[in-house]
Design a protein that fits this description.
The structure is a single chain. The protein has 68 residues and is an all-alpha fold. It has two helices and no strands. The longest helix has 28 residues.
Length: 68
């Protein structure tokens, strides 16, 4: 059971790191001076979803109401 928690924690951290990486990569590939395009908005929404999913996974891992 402990092995499963470690895997879930690593997965949540990887989701957060990938969300941050998408933000950084979007900022590098599409300069802000050109204005916001549909691609930029879609990638920023994707990164927010990745970060949110990682935070949710970690939060539920440590604040699960039913003790296993």
């Amino acid at each position: 059971m402990k092995h499963n928690k470690i895997i879930q924690l690593v997965w949540g951290l990887l989701l957060i790191m990938m969300g941050i990486a998408v933000i950084v990569k979007t900022h590098i590939v599409f300069p802000v001076a050109e204005g916001l395009t549909f691609r930029q908005i879609a990638l920023y929404i994707l990164s927010v979803m990745l970060i949110g999913g990682g935070i949710k996974k970690i939060y539920l891992l440590f604040h699960n109401k039913e003790k296993r």
